[in-house]
Amino acid sequence: MIKLKKTKNILIITIIAFAVIAIDQLSKWLVTISVEYNESYEVIHNFFSITNTHNYGAAWSMFWEKQIPIVIISVIALIFILFLMFREKKLTALKNIYYGLLTGGIIGNLIDRLVLGYVIDFLDFTFFGYEYPIFNISDVFIIVSILLICIECFIPKKYKVKDVNNEEVEVLDLDE
Fold first, then answer.
1. What range defines the domain where residue 101 resides?
2. Is residue 11 exposed (0-12), middle (13-18) or buried (19+ Cβ within 10 Å)?
3. What is the pTM of this model?
4. Number of folded domains in the chain?
5. Which residues are catalytic?
């Protein structure tokens, strides 16, 4: 029964990951055919633009033109995440979501790196005069997954025990 439930959770995580990859790749393709490279289309004046740019580095263009190390780090991160996922004793709905978003986001950017040699970035925001580094949908899903992981750290864990009358009682695990 536990094996079947875990298999169902892995399937949910896989579906979420494939949805993230599809949304990411579709959005990048739409930007590529709609906006010239290094051109920008202003959506909300002085706040949000679609800017077609290529990122030859990692986040915020760190490790510029170091594609092989970035690919290796991405693959190692994916393997580590998959290891953690399969090692989980209980995959909750929240874990299904963040594992799916995280793996899909990493794979979405990895596809660009392997096929194109760079990542297509296009979401361009300006906050109070600060031009935030341009990013893409995969980046959004990766950040959302990390936020969900952080939120989970603050959710109290509950489990059931039997009291002296052999009745189940829900208890908070204060040690976790």
1. 2-173
2. exposed
3. 0.82
4. 1
5. 121, 139
